[in-house]
Structure formats: structure tokens, C-alpha cells
Amino acid sequence: MECVACGSEATSERRDRTAQGYRRFRCRDCGRQFNERSGGVLNRTCLPSDVIALVVFCRLRYRLTLRDLSEILTLRGIEVSHEAVRDWETKLLPVMGDALRRRRQGTRRRSGSSWYVDETYLKVRGRWVYLYRAIDRDGTLVDAMLSEHRDIEAAKAFFRSARATMGFGPDRVTTDGHGSYPRAIRTVLGKMVQHRTSIYLNNRLEQDHRGIKGRIRCMRGFKSHDTAARFCREHGELRNLLRPRHRNNQVVPALLRCLRFARGARIALTIMQAA
After folding, report:
1. For the CA atoms of 53, 59, 62, 64, what is the dihedral angle to 10 degrees?
2. DSSP label at 12?
3. Is 90 exceeded by the pLDDT of residue 184?
4. Cα(242)–Cα(262) distance, integer angstroms
5. pTM score, whole prediction
């Protein structure tokens, strides 16, 4: 294992372990002592990485508040405050989200690719903000972005983010007809991209908004824009990873549904444990 201080490979493992059971090492070049979790975002946390990763996974996936998770841990003899759960969430969500976006960058590229773009409303500190979201024709997430405004600059920023996330642009974009979209599509995605405006064609995305709406309904609201943006974007990434269907109206047997959920959950938990 490389030294977290100088990067040297001249390290030796010590016989003792940390309180959480992690191996300890010593660098023979700089004399620094460290363990398996040193240098990561979970360094100096009070619980093992697998427990913390499971708590953050449940926080993002299920309709549980911070205090709900704190009480569940108390039932297992682990006393932590809800603020500790919030701190774990702040550290792990960006790591998981970035890894999941890298996994799907450049995938599902094919001729005639179509994006469905729409925005929904959320409240942050008592003020309405706009959550831009896009999916493809199979219901797979393209990108999500929270903005304080609904104008052409926000639309341009969203399309730039979506193109960078996917690694390519679409051949066709369907929106609800808001005036900011035509110019933003021509400027960012190019004049060759077909722009369709129909509230009926966007029904699939309107229904998909229920995922994030249902998740935040049990919460007391967001206190900062950064927290809301991080939570909404990474919730979309995890929800997309755990989707049982790969295309619309696909019939998925119960056993296959369980296998796909277990595989996706294992990927997300592995990413967070290694953070």
C-alpha cells in the first residue's frame, strides 16, 4: 500500500489494527503511520465504512429522514446523531455520483437518440427553485441540475452539463415549449438537432418526476441550494442505477427485478465503501 503522505511504496504493515479493524501501516521513508482508510473521505469517522455506506444508501433510496436513520442505528446499539448522518451524506454522495456518471458516460449512444427535457419545482429555504431533468426514450436518466432561475442561461448550463455527462449530444430534443429552450438547443447542441415541443410527448418525464418528488415529501425541506442540488442529482443517479427496466413498458419478472436491484446496490455500496 502506498504512503498517503509521500506516495512511497516502501511501507510495512503493523501487527495491531484500528478500533474498527482496519490494517495499519508505517512508511519507512517518511515515518508516517496510517491505515487503510487514511486519505479517504471517511477517515476519522467513528464507524466502519460498510455501516456508513449502508446508512447513506438507505438515506438516498428510501423515504427516511436523518432522525429516522439515527433511531434505526440506536436499535442496533450504535449511538450517532442525525448530524453525523448528514455529514456522511455530504462526504459520500459526490463520490458515488461522480463514479456512476463515469460508468455511463458514452453508453447508449445510437442513431436517432432522443432526449426529453423538463423542469419541476422544489423549495429551498422557502423559495421555489427549478430542477432541470432529462431522460432518453427508454427512461434512462440523462442528467439533472438545480437552478435558481428558469431562463436561457439556466437552459444552456443544463445542456452543457448533460452533454458532458453523457459524452455525446442527442439527435432530437423534446420540451414543453418554454421560450428558453430553442436558442439554448441551437447554441449548445447545434442547429442540426431537431427540437420538438409537445406537452403530451413529455408525459413520460412528467411521470418520472414523481421519483424525486416522492422522496423529498417526507423531509423538512432543504436549507441551502448546494445541499438540494447535491441530493437531487445523486438521488437521480442511484435511482437510475437501480431501475429494474431497461426500456419503457418492459415486463420484468420478480426474480430478475431482485437480481438487478442487488447488483446495482452492490455497485453503489462498493463505491462508497472505497471512498
Report:
1. 140
2. E
3. yes
4. 8
5. 0.87
Q: What residue has cell string 452492490?
A: 266
Q: How many other C-beta atoms can be found within 10 angstroms of the C-beta atom of residue 196?
A: 13
What's residue 111's pLDDT? 58
How does residue 24 score in pLDDT terms, banded at 50, 70 and 90? confident
What's the rounded Cα separation, in Å, for the pair 6 and 27? Answer: 9
Mapping DSSP onto H, E and C, the string for 161-194 reads HHHHHHCCCCCEEEECCCCCHHHHHHHHHCCCCE
Which domains, ranges and CATH numbers included, belong to the chain?
A: 1-39 (no CATH), 48-104+242-275 (no CATH), 114-222 (3.30.420.10)
**Maximum distance among all alpha carbons in the chain?**
66
Q: Each residue of 40-76: pLDDT tens digit?
A: 788 778 788 899 999 999 999 999 999 999 999 999 9
HSE-up (13 A, CA, CB side) for residue 22: 21
DSSP string, 86-148: HHHHHHHHHHHHHHHHHHHTTTT--TT-EEEEEEEEEEETTEEEEEEEEEETTS-EEEEEEES
